[in-house]
Amino acid sequence: MVVDVVRVEGLTKRFKDVLAVDGVSFVVREGEVYGLLGPNGAGKTTTIHILTTLLRPTSGSAYVAGYDVVRERDKVRREVGIVFQDPSLDDQLTAYDNMYIHGRLYGIRGDVLRRKILELLDFVGLKEFSNKQVKYFSGGMRRRLEIARSLLHEPHVLFLDEPTIGLDPQTRVKIWDYIMRIKKENNITVILTTHYMDEAEELCDRIAIMDRGRVVAEGTADELKSLIGNELTSSPP
After folding, report:
1. Distance CA 137, CA 134 (A)
2. φ, ψ for residue 94, nearest 5 deg
3. Is pLDDT above 60 for 51?
4. What are the structural domains, with CATH classification, of the chain?
5. Which of 44, 60, 145, 194 has the fewest CB atoms within 10 Å, i.e. is most exposed?
């Protein structure tokens, strides 16, 4: 039976005179990679922030893993992992210590925590750099560490906000590979935002195109290309 892991209905967010999210509705099924595709300012990140309880909606409803994002915020936070668009690592700490602090915040301790950290650092190819300060990491290494950290507490849903922005083409492909492995090996539902059509097409089972706070089209990449043409949005050079 297909289970709806995320359900969004009429979601709206207003910042004074700016309507950032305007009546958005969509459903994300268990085990799929779902993409929010659109230009900067389309409302993608604001939508993610609402679904991860960082913002309260002005109106509408949203449920993540069966929990209301307004009334059951603590339960939602236990079920989600987040990789933010902006860096959120402590540059002065090692990769291991960044992971360790995150794990302790989620109540993971002792040998279990140490094992999980080393397994995930190995998963993203950073085990040999576990004792290196993050300030010496490249952009791609930082993003891989953030992905590893987001998986530490075994979330039900993983949110990736522009996971490859600012990365070179070779590193982008590596991040794509990690995302597909997460889906296959960890059975986690993934919601990602991107303004690159090639990224959405490569990774996503279904895509919602957002523009000016609204979902203007939804479907598989093939369905969307048939509907509105191949040039949905720009890709990096």
Report:
1. 5
2. -75, 170
3. yes
4. 4-228 (3.40.50.300)
5. 60
